[in-house]
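From the pipeline queue, job 12 of 40. The input is one protein chain; the requested action is below.

Action: predict structure.
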Amino acid sequence: MKLRIGYINHHVHDFERGVAFFRDVVGLELQFSDASFDFARFDGGTVSFAVAGGGRLVTGRFRIEGVGEIAYFEDTEGNRAAIIQHDPGVDPWTV
């Protein structure tokens, strides 16, 4: 059986910054946003993609020169993720 991903709900520490990142930097089209619920939905093509507030920084942010900024987050259920924002001109597949 081939695995398919249909929905991604990404928890962020700073809701407004998260929405701005995926809208302005990544370039996803914002379909719906409600700051009172800390929830935003984007057009992810064949995958539904949402940003939700409530995440918290686990170890904080740090930089790796020549790569970019890295932050480790944990959502309200204890799931963790590393978020990497590459510096302009960095090919993430060769780092």
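Job complete. The longest strand covers residues 56-64.
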